[in-house]
Amino acid sequence: MYHKFRYSDIVRISDEVYLVSGSNTNWVVVKEGDSATLIDSGYPADYERLLASLVAIGLHQGAVKALLVTHAHNDHIGAAERLRVLHDVPVLMHEEEVPHARRDFLQQVSTGQVLSQALRPGVLPWAFHALRAGGTYHVPVLGPRPFPAPGPLDLPGAPIPIHTPGHTLGHCVYHLPNSGVLVSGDALVTGHPTSQLTGPQLLPDMFHADRERALTSLVVLGGIDADTILPGHGPAHYGSVKDAAAQALQRAEPNAVFG
């Protein structure tokens, strides 16, 4: 096991929603009775830790009705194929992310990009950690599925996918209106080892496939009615999504006008 599971890694957001911290990345469990929706799955090295987090919440592997993917970077789909093959868990995502998850192409920060930023605080320790956790492993999802239809999904929590391209072309966030929660993936984060900021922000530029679209997606997020943000990186944020998205946009583009 890459990192031993700790009960303190789990933050109970409500009776149904849990944020779990993995290896510098998060996943979310949405519980409904003895079944659950899993959103993202950490690095490849987080697999055993992910299973332990389900048990700690009172679930077993077979309780997961689907894995919803915000985007197909290694630190978010690390357990996806094993869950699909070993536990028959469907892996769902936006249709534009399906070929990325299959690894028809790879839309992920390159070694060269990381090395070009090596003098920035936190970059080299993060890169070493990412390598150990499986950040460069080949982990395609061989049977990814697009969402079956627009609107709420027929899964625990009735999550609503919202396309927020930029970080990747098929990036999606998930709105849980019954819980007042937005699972924001990497469209909006609250911290990262390569950033000196805390609170709502975009990831550093090298991580985005299309930074301009990532900025536009912040405006999309600002229209979502939720008061808790569960990001792919960093702690939960309590407060309106509109205000958080506006803060992230102002930090990324000080002269931008929100809305």
UniProtKB/TrEMBL annotation:
Annotated SMART domains: Lactamase_B
Endoplasmic reticulum among keywords: no
Keyword Hydrolase: yes
Ranges annotated as spanning the membrane: none
Molecular-function GO term, any one: hydrolase activity
Boundaries of every Metallo-beta-lactamase domain copy: 24-233
PANTHER family per UniProt: METALLO-BETA-LACTAMASE DOMAIN-CONTAINING, METALLO-BETA-LACTAMASE SUPERFAMILY PROTEIN
Protein name from the UniProt record: Glyoxylase-like metal-dependent hydrolase (Beta-lactamase superfamily II)
Organism for this UniProt entry: Streptomyces fulvorobeus
